[in-house]
Give the backbone structure.
Amino acid sequence: MSFSLDIKYAARLLFKKPLFTLLTVMIVAIGLGLTLYTYSLLNHLIFSPLTLNNQKPVIAIEAEFDYDNMRRPAADPIDLFRVKSELDLFDGFGIYSGGGTALISGSGKDSAARKFNSTFAQWNIFQFAGVQPILGRGLQPEDHFEGAEPVIVLGYKAWKSAFSADKDIIGTMIRVEAKATRVIGVMPEGFAFPAMAETWQPISYKNLAPTERQPIYGGVFAYARLKDGVNFKQLEKELANLNQKIVQTLPEVMKFRANSTGGYLKAYDYKKVYVLQHYPIFISMFVVVFLILLLACINISNLLLARVNERLKEIAIRIALGVPRARLLMQMLWESIFICGVGGFLALLIAGWGLELSNGVFEQMFAVNQQQPFWWQVSLDSEAIVVLILAILIMIVFTGLWPALRAMSGDFNAILRDGTRGAISKKSLRMNKVIVVTEVFLSCTVLVIATILLSTTYSAGQADYGVDTEQRLTAQIELPFKSYPVNRRSAMEAEQHKKRLDFFSNLKNKLEQLPNVNAVAFMRSLPGTGGGTKYVEIEGREAMTLTENPSWNIDMVAIDSWEALGIKLIAGRDFDYRDNSRRPTTSIISESLAKKYFPEGDAIGKRTRTVGIGYDLPWQTIVGIVSDVTHGSAMDVASAKNTAYVVQMGGMRRMTIAIHYLGSETMARKSLQDTISSIDGDVAAYHIQSYDALIGQPMILLSAVSKLFLFCGVMAVLLAASGIYAVSANSIIQRTQEIGVRRALGATDAKVMSLFMGQASAQLTLGLLIGLTLSFGAINIMTDTMIISHTSYAIGLIGMPLLVMFMVLLATYIPTRKIVLMEPSNALHHD
Amino acid sequence: MDTNNKKTEKRLLVEFKKIKKVFTTETVETRALDNINLTIEQGEYLSITGPSGCGKSTLLSLLGLLDTSSEGDYYLAGHQVANLSRDERAKIRNKEIGFIFQAFNLISDLTVAENIELPLSYRDDISKQERNTMVRESLKKVDMLHRENHFPSQLSGGQQQRVAIARAISGNPSIILADEPTGNLDSKNAQRIMALLDELHHEGATICMVTHDPRSATRAQRMIEVFDGKIVLDQSTDKLSAIAV
């Protein structure tokens, strides 16, 4: 069979209508490009399992994600020890305590401490990952023993940046958290397992082989692989059973480990635990992009169908001339093959470009905190190319085969005999209705989700956090544990507290004496960060059960910190030296909290205390009220406007500083570094950034996603508008003869118009109902982690359906009116 | 239909005076009908013949108010209808004219009964109950009552055309306009449709039929031949038969 003539003919048709060709190619390119991009992104970040140098995926076993505070709680080592010993399911299991920092200084006393992401891990971590050190050795079981020499394995970056890639580093002693530690190995470049580790130290033996519960809030996480023949479902099931037993054995003071529904230990796909807080957004994004692809497919199909309708006479002639059915089908498919092929190639470029931009966003996101999981580097891989080819083939079938088959099922005898295609069949009529409804619900869903996300992220970006951020520099100040230990309930505790407090006070005083520093504040989490709530009892109003008590955010603050942040003291007094205590007995609350729980204006003097399983805190008297600020991102469900502040600097090893500086930020940074070094060279200041950058940091990903949604939203509007018009117009044009018949039988213009507008309204209602149901489902998932503003709801759930309604009714009115204005005789003989 | 009156008092139903219809494209002006003068009396059975493109279908479209003439006057039952508004023309089509098309033109997603009810539903003066009665009567006339709940796609071509005839007569129109009513049918079904039209005519219906088929044309009382947009022959079929003999 020679296809050259058919290909030539298809090319001629496409070149004959360049606008049509450009439009369809671009729709395919954007639809496929977005899909390929999202697939690659989510595949790298979530869906493709982390295997390291092994066939089997790595899984994470840890305490259930805490959505109230948006954090990964650690599990008690004894519980993970039970998981390992009682479930005979694992082919490799290890524990680590993550997310910490290691303040590393060189061997010289004068070298400044540098902060690196530290991991305390089980000795098998490198074997598990299948990666060995490039210098020295990895961890060994003996390294965990009590009294063993402190050792550290450096990551490539730490080795290179802190020790200038010194090849003789192995065996030398360095100071880690001000403690002399021997370097035993250097890992290869890029290795950061469990996720973003830059140094590895042996985890305490007490964690490896625990014999009793640890009365602390810390804990560990586990990595594991399953044995051959064991699947993830089986693990989940057995883990759930064991979890029930463990939860029952938790003593009262440890009940906090289980959540309110009895959940505690859970197995996750390893990569998923690092995106749980963003998971709903990623899934929404995937849904939106998939719907956009569907919209694109339907639109292309309709455009090609409309084109096929124009060619019915030609097709009828070909059939009359005896063309085999398969050949005719192929002739009609060529156009689709060309459009999808070129569109697919452009999609590859679009996706590649999008992934490059995403890598830039990740770099920006993690530039300060260096918390980028090592697999958060996205690119187009061979799997993505296979997906693209499959998608192109499916698109060719969807967009080409369907119109071709519909065209071939027409009454060609009628077309050849009298030039008309005859009345549209009942089946075609139904199919047209289904297409219109599909187009409406897809458009509605995409537009609602996209606009809600867009509006929410925009609102969060514009939110007023209640603090002055101009000319403010922020940083994390961390005291090395070796030099600033706190041994709870020991005789030394008060003295140790004082040492920490002295450091922070000293730093504040010294900084405030500098000419370029106006004021200094310390908080555990500055407004715009932190968040989360705890249950609090109000004296005299204690609830019978814990969860019936009010809950609000509680933060630690240093004395005289309001001015540096632009927070106003509204009533009562400020904290002073009397309030410095190991167990604070005074608090200052935010204005909104005072209004909500003390509406009579009698908050000052009232007493509250934090309650919960494991808490044993004294009553705290409210001594003052300050202006409202928001802790946490404005769109984060864990964010809080109701906050109570206490002074507890002595207990803190890590605090956030905010400096209100004069002059340049560079000078302020230098002043901070110099002042810290002058007090204690082992103390590190890191995550140094402007206040605006600090607040904006958690928004970077959302801002990038919102830009993607903006793009998706614009595309959705364009696709929806063009698609709805094309589908409606095409469907109405196919009913031209019917309109002619109705008018011949005496229907007035108004009757025909109202009939078609009524039918469109019915399809619109059905489409909107399905679309809004889907949208509600997606929004419901999104609200697990996001606060959606009222404006966003209004724009999404009212504005978008109205827009779709307008588009559908307009898309029905214009073509119907055009046909109605024809003479009935023309409509009856419409070709 | 008030057949008794129509049989006894023949009156002028249609009057075309110097009707012209011109189709204009960018380069060509086509005169489809040129100075047509035509009258049709109530109760007459008229056939219009002529070669393809002669203007017979255009003539039928103008008669049925499906199109407007370029020039001339059109009186239907004594009323000038050439310059009526679109809605007024629609009302006249609905009450006074019944159409039978070559391609049947039944609406596929309406049942047989609903198709017949369709023109009646455009009237405000007929109740639902009356409509049902009229639909059933029409179906009885064409012997299709047993198929009232079927969809057009479930019927043969002949049956579809009978339904189309039932739809055309359901509202008791003054005139039935049939455009090649047997064009899409085999000879047996064509015979049956022609017989049905004969029967309607005997009952007093005024019928104007466009046809290519000479045998069908001669079943009418009067035959008009159109050529190049002009009426070149207008004679009773009895006379034509006599000439042929």
Remarks:
- The mean pLDDT of chain A is 84.
